[in-house]
Amino acid sequence: MSSVGNVLGAATAGTSPASDGYESGSAPIYLLDSFSKPSVYRHGNYDYFNATTIWDSTNSSRTLPASLYLQSKPAFFEDHPWPWVGPDLSQMVNTLPAKVRSDTNYDPPEP
Question: Can you give the pLDDT at residue 20?
Fold first, then answer.
């Protein structure tokens, strides 16, 4: 399992560091059991507890691709920001086009 280029937690939620258990009064960014913890690759993830992006010290690359599986911006993003979320963006979390369409009952044009 890998966790690369994410924005974890929420600015308004009380969070604690990633841990193997809950801490009183807050919710951890994520929980890992002792079986999975050694095999999880974490790199370039911003979390609101540390208020910074945490990089894997064994990887010197600090450049995140727009997508780890898409070659280009999907057409349905139209003029919306792509990528829509990432710790390396000036606004780390934008609104997904699907949410915009749902909130406004937008009907996209036929292809």
Answer: 46
